[in-house]
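Why do we care about 3D structure at all? Because function follows from shape, and shape follows, mostly, from sequence. That is the central idea of this module. The next example makes it concrete: a single protein chain, its amino acid sequence, and then its structure expressed as tokens.
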Amino acid sequence: MGSADNAASPIAPTSTKSTPPPKSASPNVRHVVLGDIIFNTWYPSYYPEELKLCCARDEPPPGRLIYSKDGYAIYEIDGEEHQLFSQNLSLFAKLFLDNKSVFFDVASFNYYLLVHNAPSAPSPSPDQQIIGFFSKEKMSWDNNNLACILIFPPWQLRGLGKILMGISYELSRMEDRIGGPEKPLSELGRIGYLKFWEARVANAIIGMKNKSTVTVEEIAESCWMLAEDVVSTLKEMDVLGTEKRRDGSLVISKAKVREWIIISRVNLTQPVDEEGFVEDFLAEEETS
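And the structure:
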């Protein structure tokens, strides 16, 4: 996951020959077609020997539109209401995820599709391209706001995963519940989340006016992040001070954060705009 790229112009795949991570087993399906693109798979999935063909390429995404901004849209899919679609999505995702384990028991999950809209296409439209998704438990006792995340290989290395991560934290904010992704993270997942968290945390710290120092708890509340994720991010940024307040809380210097932003050349623009959420969805969330 690289820097964010939220332009509304037509999106071409990064490459149809994406480089997979080290394999633990050979894939049982060698190639797949998504939209008009054929590309290689990385891992085996639980498809039967007689490969099934899914002819849904000309159909708009199921579920309801909850977010639309700069040519990208998010559709919320209820795994219980759209069981077959969710199962097919999970089986397809397994071709690119080594550790995914939920395929058929999808009723307890919601799925959030990242869709690219052609500039001239109405919504919904056959010209829409599903390029990634994340899943989220409807009820998580661990306050997980994301269970599984994937940008399909042809569209990776564009920073698009940050949109999905941003949506997951906006959902946490709407639920009034501090959360984070399901642990443990894969190595690639950890790298992607650290980049997202660094920009999120730095943006929050700089946005706290009239304060020369801030605490981990203040950052966590501002970002809707778990304190442990805030601490690991600050350690990675190397801005966590040794000083503590009388109550024992750690203190972070805003001056060190500003220095880190300059040296790292980080773009603090947040990948998700609150104004992009659909009004009907917001109204329903406020009353739920």
